[in-house]
Amino acid sequence: MEIGIDSFITTGAYEGPLNTAGNMTAMDSLINRIVFAEQHGLHVFGLGEHHRKEYLDEAPAVILSAAAALTKKIKLTSAVTVLSAADPVRVFQEYATLDIISKGRAEIVAGRGSFIDAYPLFGLDLSDYDALFTEKIGLLLKIRDNEVVTWKGKFRPALVNQPVFPRPVQEKFPIWIGAGGTPQSFIRAGSLGVPLMVAVIGGETHRFRGMIDLYYEAGDKAGYSKDQLKIGLHSFGYVADNKQRARDEYFPGYQKMIGNLAKERGWSPPNRRDFEAQTGTFGAYVIGDPEEVAEKIVRHSESLGGISRFTFQMDNPGLTDKQVYHSIELIGTKVIPMVNQLLGNKSII
I need a labelling partner for 239 at 20 to 30 A (CA). Which of 61, 125, 159, 327 fits? Predict the structure, then answer.
């Protein structure tokens, strides 16, 4: 199983002005974390895309290219590319270039985004939310599979016998679909025969099994065998030397981060009781000591019928660099070996 980290580069600037010096420090820290993750045996590092003051990931391919120049093995992926608000030709060109720089380590996880900020920013109508993604993921896959493209759609000028360059290093460039809790997204990924990255940021992970079944059923109907499809899982996660310390260190920043989001969306603010429930046996959050975390990753995998990748969402304004680096070290030196042992040293990728 591949295990890694997804980051959104949180700046903590929920209120007040942006800090240029702070942005530079945050960017340096992010790139250093990617290098550190590779050094400690993590398999993949993903970078999200937001267009908000509290994040610094508006141009993920640029940032990942900087990391690619400093690493040799770790896979570098978007998490997710907000494809609905982008031109698939440019997205493909950017990540094909990243694939060249990284010598074949780039991937795309494409999605619609959990925030709507990109739509007014790029002059898009939110009522086209689903139609935009449906058209653009189809074009992106067609470009991936064909050097010369003829295509016509609603939201972009047509392409007529148009070559698209550069071409990536990988013969079958990996393009995943990122999904939350919408059954249609699971069905779409299966119908297209692409890997599915599932973000479970609340509730009980095993409750997603029904939608995973929809993914495989759609793939089967489209002519894809189960071994051609694969599942990744993304959840809030953090590792410390003991269970209580992990929870105590993670909660204050989590409360601030989710509290701001709750205020914006009219949700109830997070509390410690609900947080503890999410870190429990069946909750989605993978927060604890190495043994607890490894066991929970495997339990999540079994409940979903087998996953090939797990990524920690570790961004948290309450964590220090020292705490994050130690967590990454524990993931690489303890969690990954424990997961391999629990799986019987047999890969399910």
Answer: 61
